[in-house]
Each structure stands twice: as C-alpha cells, then as structure tokens.
C-alpha cells in the first residue's frame, strides 16, 4: 500500500495576517520574508531525571517587506505603539499561511501574544536603486503549527 505524500510545499507563496486587539488586518498581508518560525522548549536534566521547564523560551519572528509611500493599518499601529514605546506592550496574534498554486492555505503557523520588539529599516544609499526594506521583529513564546489538507472533490 502506497501513501500519497502530496507535493512539496513551496516557501515563496505565503501571506501573513496580523491581529491587533483581536481585529485582523486584511491590508498588510504581503511580506518579502518571514523568519523565526520555531517551536522550542527548555528541557532540564537533574539527578538522572529529565523534565520540562515551566517557562517556554522566547523566540523572535521577523517580517520583512518593502516600504511604500501610502500609510497602512500596520504602519499606523506601529507608529501609535512607538509613541508609548517605553511604557506599553501591544500584544498581537499573527497567522502565517503557506499557499498552494490556487492560493489555498496548505500549512499555517499561529503565533499568539506576540509583541513588537523592534522596527528597523535598511540603510540608505544614494548609489543604489534597491527598494527600501523595513523589518519588524516580534517576541513570542507560543506558536502552533497547523498542517491544512483540503480534499478536492471532482467528477
């Protein structure tokens, strides 16, 4: 009996949905790069016993994209958050979905209670015509991987 493993998932078709105060942002979904998707835990060894630490390690999720001339909901949220940078953390939930050739999600990661740790821009260079890239790094401890399989029916 053969098992259908399907096709390999490509890493260049994806969308990112960021929820701020429980509200999804359907505008800012396209990014150039996502890095830092990682499930990790701390394991301790004491006197021959192996145990899990009670606290999960903090991970960093980095989102990169080109800077545009228009203002978007994510830029507004980041700007407002930067006004209170030293006193407040605005928690966000983030869903990263990999898409198939029909733009249907096939895999997803949900990151909950993430907060913006840094927001930075590439260096400026008058001798280059590259697009200006902004990077947003979010700290998180909880990520869930969700393999999605939609059965296509047809006759």
Query: What is the H/E order?
Result: EEEEEEHEEEE
Let me know the number of strands: 10
Largest sheet: 8 strands, antiparallel
Give the averaged pLDDT, no decimals: 88
Q: Please give the count of helices.
A: 1
List low-confidence stretches: none
| Share of β-strand residues | 35-45%
**Shape annotation:** globular
Radius of gyration: 19 Å
> Helical amount among residues, as a percent range?
under 10%
Distance between the termini: 24 Å
How does the helix and strand content classify structurally? Answer: mainly beta
What are the SSEs and their pairings?
Blueprint (H helix, E strand, L loop, with lengths): L13 E7 L2 E3 L7 E3 L7 E4 L2 E4 L6 E8 L6 H11 L7 E9 L5 E17 L11 E8 L1 E6 L8
Antiparallel strand pairs: 1-2, 1-7, 3-6, 4-5, 6-9, 7-8, 8-9, 8-10
């Amino acid at each position: 009996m053969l098992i259908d493993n399907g096709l390999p998932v490509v890493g260049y078709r994806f969308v990112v949905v960021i929820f701020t105060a429980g509200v999804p942002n359907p505008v800012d979904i396209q990014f150039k790069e996502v890095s830092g998707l990682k499930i990790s835990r701390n394991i301790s060894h004491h006197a021959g016993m192996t145990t899990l630490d009670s606290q999960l390690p903090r991970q960093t999720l980095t989102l990169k994209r080109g800077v545009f001339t228009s203002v978007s909901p994510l830029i507004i949220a980041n700007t407002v958050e930067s006004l209170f940078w030293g006193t407040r953390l605005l928690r966000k939930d983030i869903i990263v979905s990999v898409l198939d050739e029909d733009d249907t999600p096939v895999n997803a990661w949900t990151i909950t209670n993430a907060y913006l740790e840094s927001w930075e821009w590439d260096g400026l260079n008058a001798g280059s015509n590259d697009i200006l890239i902004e990077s947003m790094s979010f700290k998180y401890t909880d990520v869930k991987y969700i393999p999605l399989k939609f059965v296509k029916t047809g006759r």
